[in-house]
């Protein structure tokens, strides 16, 4: 026990624990990780950690700046929830760890991304449907190979952004933008359009793969009906080739999404949260069960 006596004290409340300890069930215990015990039962949360309002701390992995420390339960501006992981309704994440009010035109990035996806899938289908290995020049083979390598490299860089590292600028912004190819819809400020729970966001992210296949099927049907005037059976090879190429290109993204619920980060209080979704407790919440 480490007590801090107050000379001439007439009450027990005038005495408390010394620096580096806090009073727990009548005893002075050593200050836990993530806490700053200043003595006389004055306890603050250290920078890079968050508490749930009690003397139980979560490490703010990934971007520690969302947890500035200070009084118990404090989060960066605009943030709340477990480990300060969520932006409040009507706010979007900023690069400095805070959440700022959503700007006007929040639907624009989402619409532009959807159009870019449709155009990209159409271009892929058109290329594969017209591609002839026996006649086309070797340069076309090289172009398609380089494109696939570029997409794969971009996915790998996007995965780096999910690692438990506090990236410095401009790497943080670049990796955040590249994570879009891994179907990270948070980059598009979807939360400004409609707010979802973490488990719902994960399910939407997984469903993006299904929607991409649906879009490819739609493109195939329109292409056969309008360009070829029918004959689905004769042009199935283009559809299967397009879907195969799409699976090859986004294989890394699909694997990353599939293993995300099993990647749990330990915290000083003994709890574990999903690394990609810090507000979800591993094995202890319904959200994790859904994921």
Automatic annotation (TrEMBL):
Matching entries from InterPro entries are given as: Growth_fac_rcpt_cys_sf (IPR009030)
Q: Does the keyword Iron apply?
A: no
Parts of the chain that traverse the membrane: 107-125, 137-154, 174-196, 208-228, 240-262
Keyword set includes Cell division: no
Keywords assigned by UniProt, alphabetized: Membrane, Transmembrane, Transmembrane helix
- According to UniProt, the name of this protein is Uncharacterized protein
Protein's organism: Zooxanthella nutricula
